[in-house]
Amino acid sequence: MPRNKAEKPRRTAGKARFNVGDRVRVKDLPNLFYSRTQMYVRGIVGTIAAYTYQDVIPEDEAFNRDGRLEQYYIVRFRQKDLWPEYPFDNDTVQTESPERWLEPADN
Amino acid sequence: MSTKSEVASGRIALLDSIRDDQKTWNVLAPRYGVTNPDPPWKTSLVAMCDCLAASGALPALERRRAEDELVDSVYRDVPTPERQLLALVHVMLRQGLVTERELASRMSAVRSRLESA
Amino acid sequence: MSHAHSPGDGGEHPAAPMVEEITDFEVLEIAVRELAIEHGLFSADDHRRFTEWAESIGPAAGSRLVAKAWTDPAFKARVMEDAVKACKEIGIDWAEPTGFGTPSDYMNLRVLEDTPTLHHVIVCTLCSCYPRPLLGMSPEWYRTTNYRRRLVRWPRQVLAEFGLILPPEVEVRVEDSNQKCRFMVLPVRPEGTENWSEEQLAQIVTRDCMIGVALPRPGRTADVHPVHKARRPVQGPAHSPEAANEHKK
């Protein structure tokens, strides 16, 4: 359970891999059960918009669960990168992702 | 690809027998001049969903996936919040958290209790 | 018993109307709950606590937060820095009712601040997560696959159906709450509200404004939109993006 910021964390995951502003790609990992990483962002490159908290991987992605805390991020995507011929240049979508679902995107 | 819910969307006789489009809140409330948008049991239903998730008996994402399938199929014509109630019970029955027989029996007992109160 | 809440005033007013029948739905809810408790799926105490919590929440809290943020820049800064902590100032504790939140709302609120060139709208494509401690129970349309699938794909069409049309240069940012963060929109304070009190401002901050499907404005104190039937047939082609593309072929 993510801790209130005022509380001391039980343990930390160490330095977060990504910084705000980094370009990242969402991996398309196989998932045995329900996944919280939506299909519409798989393989898409976005930008780290914010840090949120550190937490364990959710129970419903229990297949490879090692109990360690990892950083979660808000990732921002351009709608034009998500959908073919999306007509509005400025529109975006943001979703939240644990670090293990992200990899650096080479520009 | 995420796997489709394993909760089959087949019909459950007991729940089918409960369905009555003249007894849903959106019909009953105006008939009696009651303005509350929700029946009094709605908060109890919400609490039940939270409790099942908190205890781990029925996690929220799993329950909602099954509910999405059921309200788009078996309970398509049932209004809110009766559709949520039926979908929840349907999932609980399919997962063996309760049985149809004991539920039918308990419903009789509850109704007798309420009607004699 | 099914009944409307009557005022506890000693019977000086006529009794409020009641639904005078016991439906199978009501009976079913009680029966399954009793069995669940007997089978140890949860405790009666926990259920009571969560029921009381569910009865305590509503969108008035969110309206108060927005109105206070509009009138008190220091409060707004605290909201943007740590929204859960700032909620305590308006009487909302995200730790309730367990001490560590609910298994759906958690304790990670983020408030999304609109600007004249940035408009937020929230959704949960996976299920229908919603900032219940501030907004109460989610509206029925928010839970539908219709809204959840279409908002991220066709946000402007969906907003237009709510009567909200934004210029193309405004960034429409859809926030999909797919993990433990919960979001609420802090709309732009509308013109014509200068010198309004917090109470007056709160009245025009409706639930739909804090979801992002409506804009607050003077005189608009209720969310009213075309009634979408509870069971919009999903087999109809009109609401699928695939079908939308079909038209263009």
Polypeptide structure, described:
In chain A, 4% of the residues lie in helices and 32% in strands. Chain A has one domain (23-104): SH3 type barrels. Chain A has 107 residues and is mainly beta. Chain A has one helix and five strands. The termini of chain B are far apart. The relative contact order of chain B is 0.15. Chain B has one domain (21-116): Nitrile hydratase, beta subunit (Cyclin A, domain 1, Orthogonal Bundle). In chain B, helix 4 packs across helix 5. Chain B has six helices and no strands. Chain B has helices at 13-18, 25-32, 42-55, 60-71, 82-94, 100-116. Chain B is mainly α and 117 residues long. Chain C has 249 residues and is mainly α. Chain C has two domains: 24-55, no CATH class; 59-239, Alpha-Beta Complex (Nitrile Hydratase, Chain A). In chain C, 44% of the residues are buried. At the B-C interface, helix 2, helix 3, helix 4, helix 5 and helix 6 of B face helix 1 and helix 2 of C.
Brief synopsis:
The complex is a heterotrimer of chains A (107), B (117) and C (249). Chain A is built from one helix and five strands; from the N terminus they run βββαββ.
Short descriptors:
heterotrimer; B: 117 residues; mainly alpha; Cyclin A, domain 1; 0% strand; disordered N terminus; C: 249 residues; Nitrile Hydratase, Chain A; 2 domains; two-stranded parallel ribbon; two-stranded parallel sheet; 12 helices; 40% helix; 9% strand; globular; disordered C terminus
Q: Write down the domain tally of chain A.
A: 1
Nearest-angstrom radius of gyration of chain B? 15 Å
Helical content of chain A stands at under 10%
Percent of residues of chain A in beta strands?
25-35%
State the share of residues found in helices of chain B, binned by percent. Answer: 55-70%
Main β sheet profile of chain B: none
Average predicted confidence as pLDDT of chain A? 84
Question: What general outline of chain A do the C-alpha atoms trace?
Answer: globular
CATH superfamily of chain B: Nitrile hydratase, beta subunit
